[in-house]
Amino acid sequence: MTRIVTRALSTPARGLSALYGRRALRRWTHLVLGGALSMPYYLVGSIVLVSLGTEIGGPAFLGPPHVLALLAGLPLAAVTALFPPTRPLSVTAVRALCGIGDGDGTELADGPARSGAARGRTAVWFTLHLGVGAVTSGMTLAVVPFASVVLLLPLVPGLRTGPLGELYRDGGVWALVLSPLAGAAMLLLLAGCVALAGALLARAAPALLGPAPADRLAEAERRAADLAVRGRLARELHDSVGHALSAVTLQAVAARKVLDTDPGFVREALAAIEETTRRTVGELDAVLGVLRDTGERGTTAPAPTLETDLDGLLRRTRAGGALLDTTLDPGPHGFGALPPQVSREAYRIVQEALSNALRHAGAGVRVDLTVTVADGNLDITAHNPLPRSADTASRPGGGHGLRGIADRARLLGGRTESGAREDRWLLRVRLPLRAPR
């Protein structure tokens, strides 16, 4: 019983909220804004009708001539709606005043219309907004004052003059009793018409201002580009910082073991730790500069390449206790002749291969590394002893390094091969020096 009474009492409140609530008033404001924007086109339409001999007179927005003037000006509004700023401004107004947009799951397009169909839909929306807004504004300007006077007629004797005074005298007491009801009914009817118009416009907005297929494609391409950048940054952070941490850890461990017996090796290990951390901080600053996107990328350290830092990478790896057997054959023109992107990605691949060998097989292992340039390809081969089962079991979450190597090779049109070969681990990468067609 209580629920029935509460529902019965809440129904009028819901109805008034639908007519005069916050959302209804904001949509009303949106319609009045459309009426204000329609005024220049209405004036142009009036000039056209007057030039054709049609008289424009009487109360504004009420007579047929005014409606004809508005209709005559709306084609010009459709033409001006083809300008690029129209859709962004319309979408902003719809999101702010109509209560619809991306926040409620309704998708609206951002930016100017890119295709003819999108511009046409924008012109339809703008014309519809101005036309309905003009009619709504005219009704508001006419009905609200008149209904207010009728509503206050019994309470303000000064209002009982003129045509309303004659109505009051002819109707007698019944006019005095019914006039407040008539005034309230007029206001409710006006609010209902405005709420209906606002709801219809809000329903039409996604269809007319929503993204076209070209917009969806552009957004998908933007998201794909963002994901590609994020993936590249993740690989850079993993390879650079991960290798640095592994190398520094092994160098520190090796230096601690011979601290009292081999001071020269300790000094070399500490120097390698200093160089590794300094370079890694510079590379980390470069990656964070891309994330910040402050336009200061030119001040960050450039990405290392085979030409600029392969010797340093091998030296720092040896300082960590690794035994490297290297075969380097850069071809007749040297590593400096490699395409910059190939040289950068190859450096990261070599870095990750050495890092994996040190991380999984431990210090003191012998790693055979071959980097050769021949027949239009850059070949990288690294093999080292397999890690002990205890070491492998103690390292959860592995596999990101090999996946990163495969991703780098695939982006350049290359291929990778990795796996156990008898008692050794083999990694082989081939990168073409020319982009695939």
UniProtKB/TrEMBL annotation:
Cellular component aspect of the GO annotation: membrane
Family matches, as Gene3D superfamilies: 1.20.5.1930, Histidine kinase-like ATPase, C-terminal domain
GO molecular function, one term: protein dimerization activity
Signal transduction histidine kinase subgroup 3 dimerisation and phosphoacceptor domain mapped to chain residues: 230-294
InterPro entries the record matches: HATPase_C_sf (IPR036890), Sensor_HK_TwoCompSys (IPR050482), Sig_transdc_His_kin_sub3_dim/P (IPR011712)
Top enzyme class: transferase
Record region (Disordered): 384-404
Name of this protein: histidine kinase
